[in-house]
Fold this sequence. Notes:
Radius of gyration: 23 Å
Order of helices and strands: HHEEHHHHHHHHHHHEEHHHHHHH
Largest sheet: 2 strands, antiparallel
Strand content: under 5%
Oligomer: single chain
Shape: globular
Number of strands: 4
Amino acid sequence: xxxxxxxxxxxxxxxxxxxxxxxxxxxxxxxxxxxxxxxxxxxxxxxxxxxxxxxxxxxxxxxxxxxxxxxxxxxxxxxxxxxxxxxxxxxxxxxxxxxxxxxxxxxxxxxxxxxxxxxxxxxxxxxxxxxxxxxxxxxxxxxxxxxxxxxxxxxxxxxxxxxxxxxxxxxxxxxxxxxxxxxxxxxxxxxxxxxxxxxxxxxxxxxxxxxxxxxxxxxxxxxxxxxxxxxxxxxxxxxxxxxxxxxxxxxxxxxxxxxxxxxxxxxxxxxxxxxxxxxxxxxxxxxxxxxxxxxxxxxxxxxxxxxxxxxxxxxxxxxxxxxxxxxxxxxxxxxxxxxxxxxxxxxxxxxxxxxxxxxxxxxxxxxxxxxxxxxxxxxxxxxxxxxxxxxxxxxxxxxxxxxxxxxxxxxxxxxxxxxxxxxxxxxxxxxxxxxxxxxxxxxxxxxxxxxxxxxxxxxxxxxxxxxxxxxxxxxxxxxxxxxxxxxxxxxxxxxxxxxxxxxxxxxxxxxxxxxxxxxxxxxxxxx
Length: 527
């Protein structure tokens, strides 16, 4: 029986709602601080996405073809005139952002040839409207803030759903990875990749909870299932419309979640008539996304030789190349910011690796045979899905996959691990949850604060100068100054760590002792 339907369900719902609100607030603050800290268009591909959003908000849904100009051209208001020198520091980690020209400078052009000119318009409609009221870098920051708030809504919903489930003991730690600096950095930029990450986190959690609500003990109250379906529909819509591969990611998420819970709840969900009202909503946006991709012209065009590695190569070559990139892609997904030109030291990444590895090892060590298979499949998917997706299009696009594209999978695998660890089959490690959650929260929060400082260091003076030059002779400053932003980010990071740690205590205390799996009489380990 769903705990929200028990006599103490009101207390459980109240605690879960508080967790969702606090999770939303902290995620939003982290993303907003990145929105202020990042120089104009310093986030990956932000110039292409932001100009598309600005043009769309001003009435140009799709860019136009101009003879002699590569990519589609969008028109920009005077307040957003674009000068290529804005990105003078890109690709050179030793050059500060001080060399850039301001967005909207008179020297800029009133158009931009963006490779996103025909992309699905939904994300750009959500974030582009502030450009109607604010111009220049203020308008760009406002769009970033809107993007951060939307992403935080999904992360907050994930915390709420996790804490309302009977399986919540390890979920605070599993969801804490959604606050990793690269995740909130992308949410706080004008880039649909950030929305994709946030929506996927909510969708992983919502689908697991929906299947749980249709399980043997899933006699959830009507209102609970309605809320789960609302989040599922919203997250699915955001995911399938964020990027062209969104519909495929939806299938991957539902498939892995179904494998995790087993056939019975999946069958019950898909044989419940009421489910098809919500499934129809998801299907409408899914078909819209597919139609826009295949008919609207947002498929990638044929790359030229030299644009990317392996243009024109075959599937097998793409598979081998991508497999060799696996460790590099994982590093990118944790600690490479900007246009892959703000790269954290390798030693710092071990804080994240240690926490992720610890819960995976615990899950494998305490799992029954079926759960161990699920974990193995999820880990294999993290490696193989990017390999096969990129290899499929390598002849047309070359190798263009980046580690951040796989974050929806990496975060999802950790959510599945947390879900399995919170089951009765993992009772032998249940007592460790509070300690591990606190340790993990401390490590991840410290890593986040360090990453923010390091990226500021890269943009304020460049990495060839001593870090003390940030104080003695700063070359570039974000709004409010780097010291204020670094201090605020450190405070919010501490708040995030305390939030995760205390959630771990509440999750363990609310559940109490996890009931062990009954042992059949006659076995040596039977009581």
